Fold these 2 entries.
Entry 1:
Amino acid sequence: MSPFTVATAPGEQQRGLRRDLLACRMTTHVVVLGAGFGGLELVTRLSDAVADQVQITLIDQNDSFMFGFSKLDVMFGRQQPADVWHPYRHITKPSVEFRREAVTSIDPSTRRVVTDRDTYDADILVVALGADYDPAATPGLAEGGYEFYSHAGAERARDALEAFGGGAVVIGVLGGFFKCPGAPNETALLLHDFLARRGLREASSIHLVSPLPMPIPISRKTSAAIEAILADHGIDYRPSSMVTRLDADRRIAHLRDGQELPYDLFLGIPVHCAPPVVADSALAVDGWIPVDPATFATSFPGVFAVGDVTSAPVPRAGGIAEGEAATLAEVLIAQLTGGPPPPPYPGVAGCYVELGDELVGRIDVNFLEYDTPVAKFMAPDTRLTGEKREWGATRAARWFA
C-alpha cells in the first residue's frame, strides 16, 4: 500500500497534516497544558508578540473557563452558573489551537504529552494544570459538609445555603496550601451578608477556622485590619487551627488541638494536591513541580511550569499565575527572537477581597523584590468594587474576544 493511502481516521489525518505543516513552516511548537489564568495569559502574549514564529496547542479537559471569584457568586446565589462561564471556543487568536482533551501522561525528558485523544511532541512544553482537590483527605467531609472550591461543589453549597434555616456555620480551611489566601475571610463576610438579607443572622453564628496564623501571614498590619472587620461582623475567627475530621452523624467538627466545634452547616476549602498526571510524572518533587522562580524553567530543558501546580515561593492565586505567565512569555519571546533576557519575576500581584456590604478591599503584595514579602491593604471602598469588576472584564476580553 502506498504511504499516501494508509487508512486513518479523519481526525488522525487532520492531526498528521497539522504536524507536517508545522515542520514545513519551521515554527516552534509550544504545547500548553491547562487553560486557566496561567495558560490563557501565556498563549495570549505569545500570540500577540510572535504568532509568526510559533504554533501553540492549548489543551484543557474542560470546555470553558470560570474565574475563581465567580464560584462565590454562584454559591451565594448572586449569579447563575451559565452566566459565569467563558467558552474556550471563543479563543480565535493567531497560531493558537485549543483542544479539549484530558492529559494522561507527561514525559518531560522528551516533551511528549499523551491525551485521551492524541499524542503531542513539543519543542517547548508548559505545564499550567493548576491544583486539584482531595475532599477524601478530610474524613467525613463528603458525608457531613460541603466543599465549595470546585464548580460542582459551589453549586451544591448554594443549594445547602438556600435550604439553611439558621444555626452554626463553620467555614474550615482543611489544608496548609490553598488557592487565594483571602478567600476564607471573604467567604465568612459574604455569608454574613447572605444570612442578614434572609433575616437569619441573629439566629446564626459564623466560625472561621484556618491553619494560617493570621489572615495574610506576610503582614501583621493587613491582617489586623481584616481581623477587625471579622470581629465587627460578629465572626468567630480561629487562626492556627484546623479541622481534621467531621462527625457527620453528630455534626461535630474535630479540631487539631482536640477541641470539638458543633455545626449545623459546614463549608470547607478542601485539601489541595497536584493533578495525578503531574504527581505521577518525573516533574513532581514532594507533590509539586519545582521551578526557577525567576524564569519558571523546570530541571528539564524546554519544559516550564506556572501557576498553582508549582512550588514557587508565592501564594496560589489567579493573579499570581497570571504574573508568572507574563514573565514566562517574556522569557520565551526573548529566546525566540534572540532578544535580551527579561527581568526576573517580581512576585507582585493585587488581590481583591469582598468584605460585605457591597464593598471590596484590595491587598497588594510583593513577594520577591525585597528581603521579605510585603503586603498593603486598601480599605473597602465602592470604587474598588467597580475596579474588581473591570479587572475581570478586561481579562475576559483579552483572552476570549
Note: DSSP finds ten helices and 23 strands in the chain.
Entry 2:
Amino acid sequence: MPQQNDLSRSLIPFEQATTLAAVIELSQSSWLIAGTIPGIERQPLKKIAPDETDLLRVLHRWRDEATRSGRTVTRIAVGFEAGRDGFWLARWLTGHGIETHVIHSSSVAVSREHKRAKTDRLDTAMLMRVFLGWLRGERGHCGVVAIPTIEEEDAKRPSRERETLVGERTRIINRIKSALARLGVRGFKPQLRKAPQLLESLRTPEDSPIPPNTLDEIRRDLTRLALLREQINAIEQARLARLEQAPQVGPNAMVQMLASIRGVGIETADMLVQEVLSRTLRDRRAVGRYAGLTGAPDESGSKRREKGLAKSGNARVRRGLIQLAWRFLLFQKDSALAQWFRSRTDGVKGARKTKMIVALARKLLIALWRMVTTGEVPHGVVVRQAV
C-alpha cells in the first residue's frame, strides 16, 4: 500500500531566512507574480505575459537579489490556484528545479462582505498569506492539490469523453422525440440502427407525411447520432484492448478487481479507478470527502441541522456512485451493505431511501477503496471471474 500524503499542511520545515516564496495569479491575458524574498523588506509584484520562461527569469532574478543582500536561498516555493491552466505549469516548474504547489481554490477563505474589493493585487496578497501559513505546517490555511503526471491526466480522458458523448447522444434523442411529439408522432426510437429507414414511413395523426424541413432536421440528427455511436464504441473497444494487453499493470489491475464484482461494469470500474481510487488519499474520510458525499452541518448555539451534501468534491464520481449504489442493491442483495440499507429503510419508521442511498454510496466507495488498496473484499459481496 503506497505511503499516504497529507496535503493539508507542509511536512518540510520552513526556514524563512533561506526560502523564497512566490504566488501567481493566473489569467488568460497576464500573470501577476508576488514574492517574499529573504533579506528584502519589500514584497515585489511583477506582471508578465503568460510565459513560463519569463516566470522562471523573474524567480531567478529575485533569488539573485536575496544573494546580493547577504542571504542564501536554498528553497524556492511557488504556489498558484488550480484553474483553467491545469497542472502543466506545475510540472514544468518542477522539471526546472522549482518546488511548486497547486492550491485548491475553494479552500482559500475570502471576505464575506457584501461588496468586497477584488483585484489581482488583493488576490495575490491573500494567496501569499495562506500559502505562507501552509508552508509553516499550520492546518486550515488552504488545501493543496496532488499534481498528477501527464500520463495520469491522459488516462482520465476516455472516460470523460465517453460521458460527454453519451450526454450529447441523449440530447439528440430527446430533440428528435420532441420534434416528432409536436406533430403528434409517438413511439419512434431514434437510438435504433434502422431508425433512418423507419423515419420515411412515419405519418402524423392526420395521415400526412413529416414536413420536409422537420424531416431534413431529423435526418441530420440521426447522422450525428450514428457518428456518436461509432465514437462511443471506439472508446469502449480501445479500453478493452488496453486491459487485455496489460491486465495486471498499474490501474488496470484495480479495474479488473472492481469489474469482478457482480453489478460493476468496466465503464464504472474504470471511472472510479482513474478518478479517485488510484489517488493516494489519506484515509476513509478523505475518500468520502473527495467524492463530495459528506454532510454539511450547520451548528450554532442550540441550532443543529444538516444542510445536505457538501457537493464540494468530484461531481463525476458522486453521480456514478449514486447510480452504482442503486445497482448494487439489485445485484448484491445478500451483502452486508445491502442488508444495512434495508434495515434502515424498511418498516413504517424507515428512513427515506433517497437519503439513505447517499450514505450507502459513501460506504460503498470506502469499501471499494479498501478492496483495491488492501485486497479486503466487502462482506457478502459476490465476486465473479475477472473480465
Note: Residues 154-245 form one domain.
